[in-house]
Design a protein that fits this description.
The complex is a heterodimer. By secondary structure, chain A is mostly helical. In chain A, 81% of the residues lie in helices and 0% in strands. Chain A has one domain. Chain B is 38% helix and 25% strand. In chain B, the strands form two sheets. In chain B, strands 6-7-8-3-9-10 form a six-stranded mixed sheet, sandwiched between helices. In chain B, a hairpin with a 2-residue loop joins strand 9 and strand 10. In chain B, helix 4 crosses helix 5. The chains are: A mainly alpha, B alpha/beta.
Chain lengths: 261, 248
């Protein structure tokens, strides 16, 4: 005889628990795909291009704009306290330690998260994911794992681009107000910078990539309800990814500060 | 594992419910090798759900499904994926990959399961598309072709891995009568030329009449008719008679 199916979960707490359980199962289904070779290298490279190279202009623009804003805003404050010479250091420290990574995470979450959520959502509602499954190709391996790894690899690289664009544009903004050579700007800015200031914050963005790839793939592959559902998935992917990036950043900053006091 | 060489598909006491709705209520049937079985029934009677269960896209609440002697409800993902390569599935909306052209759609299962070299795959895809009547426009994208052409491409893709069983979900839905007849004839040709076993879910009673070896009529989660089309015509079941009368 058939087993009884529980009535739909009405309690929000239970719904949240069910969501977390489903998300955990999805993550495990992706993890186990790495046991079976070969990895989908071709699809991974295609995704790396979509996530990485195609996000590069946007990330560089966002990083550059941040550099300009940092220069404009901190100049006034530093001048008041007689510390205008510290401006390059403030811009560079701020960018590499926090602003660059978080801006990159949020920009990629908006662009790539929505893209993955909508693309996989559309594939779900048009049965393309089912078609893949019935032909013996594991969708978790082909669709999710490739996107997740591409996000993990691309985010630190994009962060470097955002940092570089921010520093250059910070120098440009500074130079327009008070002419300074790039070499002097960099020498002043990088004087006190250690690898521990630069490396952990850059590498932490790999975790942001993991969040974007995993959450967006999960949301997209579990889309329900036609085109309206696809729209919902795109929105949910961005909102959830962005929220989790900000929350995880709090923990990571605390962790990095503890390890590199 | 059960040895059933002449019954590649055996379903026993299959139950499936969604919430309070009992979709399948103890469905049992088997399909012989090379047989074409049409599954008829009103909308919402669980025909498509039945097909999804047969290929492991959904799990039954209870019951047994044996494909080529193997109980698929007990299989792990890896073995299930291996078994699925012996089964073709034609989706109602064709489910072509919209980022790939027609030729690439057919090549997809071959490429991802490491079959043959690229040039061999291309030749095979062209041959498969030719076998379903498509010889030109193979680099078109799915959005650029008609519903009938999509069905043909989807059928060519389903044939790529040389399946022994093909499941068809409404293969003629939304098609004009001529194209519908051509698709139905293709199913018969597959049986005659490749010995393929077919399960066809449809509303088209005319197709069932002319192209089926056997029909199953689903009503309220149960099979109320299981036999040749003439058996359905002779049945005293009210649903069977309504089906025949309203389709005449």
């Amino acid at each position: 005889m058939p087993s009884a199916i529980p009535s739909p979960l009405k309690d929000p707490a239970l719904s949240l628990l069910a969501w977390v359980g489903d998300f955990g199962r999805f993550c495990w289904s992706v993890v186990v795909t790495f046991r079976s070779l070969p990895f989908e290298v071709r699809e991974f490279l295609r995704q790396l291009d979509i996530v990485g190279s195609k996000s590069l202009p946007l990330v560089a623009l966002a990083g550059g704009a941040t550099g300009v804003v940092l220069s404009l805003q901190t100049r006034d404050s530093l001048t008041r306290f007689g510390a205008a010479s510290l401006l390059p250091a403030v811009i560079i420290f701020s960018l590499i330690k926090e602003t660059g990574p978080i801006i990159t995470g949020l920009v990629v979450s908006g662009r790539v998260g929505a893209g993955i959520g909508a693309e996989l959502g559309s594939m779900r509602v048009t049965e393309q994911i089912d078609a893949m499954a019935v032909s013996g190709v594991d969708p978790s391996k082909f669709l999710a794992a490739t996107r997740i790894v591409a996000c993990v690899v691309a985010l630190p690289l994009l962060t470097l681009a955002a940092d570089a664009a921010g520093i250059i544009m910070g120098w440009v903004a500074t130079n327009l107000v008070e002419p300074t050579s790039l070499r002097l700007f960099m020498n002043n800015g990088l004087r006190g910078v250690l690898f521990s200031d630069f490396l952990p914050p850059t590498i932490k963005t790999a975790l942001f990539g993991l969040i974007i790839g995993t959450v967006s793939s999960f949301v997209g592959m579990n889309t329900r309800g036609g085109t309206e559902g696809v729209g919902r998935s795109a929105t949910s992917s961005v909102v959830l990814s962005s929220l989790l990036i900000i929350l995880s950043d709090v923990l990571l900053v605390k962790l990095i500060t503890a390890v590199y006091p | 594992m059960t040895d059933s060489p002449n019954k590649p598909l055996v379903v026993a006491e299959l139950y499936k419910t969604f919430g309070a709705q009992k979709v399948l209520d103890g469905v049992s049937f088997s399909v012989a090798k090379g047989e074409i079985v049409y599954v008829l029934g009103r909308s919402g009677t669980g025909k498509s759900v039945l097909l999804r269960l047969l290929v492991g896209l959904a799990s039954p609440d209870a019951g047994s499904i044996q494909i080529n002697g193997e109980e698929i409800t007990q299989l792990g993902t890896q073995r299930l994926n291996e078994l699925r390569r012996t089964i073709g599935f034609l989706f109602q909306q064709s489910a072509l990959y919209d980022s790939l052209n027609l030729e690439q759609n057919v090549q997809f299962p071959l490429r991802h399961l490491g079959h043959e070299k690229e040039s061999q795959r291309a030749t095979r895809a062209t041959d498969l598309l030719a076998s379903v009547g498509l010889t030109s426009g193979l680099t078109k994208m799915p959005a650029e072709i008609s519903g009938g052409m999509k069905k043909r491409v989807a059928l060519a893709r389903a044939l790529a891995l040389n399946p022994t069983i093909i499941l068809f979900d409404e293969p003629t839905a939304g098609l004009d009568p001529i194209t519908a007849a051509e698709i139905s004839q293709l199913i018969v040709d597959l049986r005659d030329q490749r010995g393929v076993t077919s399960v066809v879910v449809t509303h088209e009673i005319h197709c069932a009449k002319y192209y089926s070896d056997r029909v199953l009529l689903l009503s309220e989660g149960k099979i109320v008719v299981d036999g040749a089309f003439t058996d359905m015509q002779a049945s005293t079941d009210a649903i069977a008679q309504q089906f025949l009368t309203n389709s005449a």
